[in-house]
Design a protein that fits this description.
By secondary structure, the chain is of the alpha+beta class. It has 2 domains: 66 residues, 434 Repressor (Amino-terminal Domain) (Orthogonal Bundle), CATH 1.10.260.40; 60 residues, Cyanate lyase, C-terminal domain (Cyanate Lyase, Chain: A, domain 2), CATH 3.30.1160. Helices cover 51% and strands 18% of the residues. It contains 6 helices and 2 strands. It has a two-stranded antiparallel ribbon. A hairpin with a 6-residue loop joins β1 and β2. The radius of gyration is 17 Å and the shape is globular.
Length: 146
């Protein structure tokens, strides 16, 4: 089974069982962002987590096996070569669909504003290596119909 087929089956089962990413992640015992990303084909799950997902959603062993496969993380975009900027392209490429799914699930159909928006970049000292902490805060803008 290909990752795209796996994702299609997961999305259909998620919809038919009316299960949220948050609920699914609580039952599986991992982060909703990481779980969503794996279900969208951009990360892989442990055997235990993969089988929990398929059990909860009533999916086949083929889906569980595909969830465990290492993904091919690529997208057809030109990216800058500056390492810091490149990492942001990588984040959007790997987690962009996940971010979109979770925003839509929590807020509805719309976008996060980049105009009514703030970002904070902080340093968190850590004995294992200092951490970059980026907080993005944008107003939710629902799409309107006319």
């Amino acid at each position: 089974m290909k990752k795209i087929e796996m994702t299609e089956e997961i999305m259909a089962a998620k919809k038919s069982t009316n299960t949220s990413w948050e609920t699914l992640s609580e039952k599986v015992g991992i982060s909703p962002v990481f779980l969503t990303s794996a279900c969208l084909g951009m990360n892989s799950l442990s055997e235990e987590a993969a089988y929990k997902v398929t059990e909860i959603l009533g999916l086949s062993e083929d889906v569980a096996e595909t969830l465990q496969e290492f993904p091919h993380k690529s997208w057809d975009k030109l990216v800058p070569t500056d390492p810091v900027i490149y990492r942001f392209y990588e984040i959007v490429g790997v987690y962009g669909e996940t971010i979109k799914e979770i925003i839509h699930e929590k807020f509805g159909d719309g976008i996060m504003s980049a105009i009514d928006y703030s970002m904070h970049i902080d340093k968190e000292e850590n004995p294992m290596g200092d951490r970059v902490v980026i907080t993005m805060n944008g107003k939710f803008l629902p799409y309107k119909s006319w």
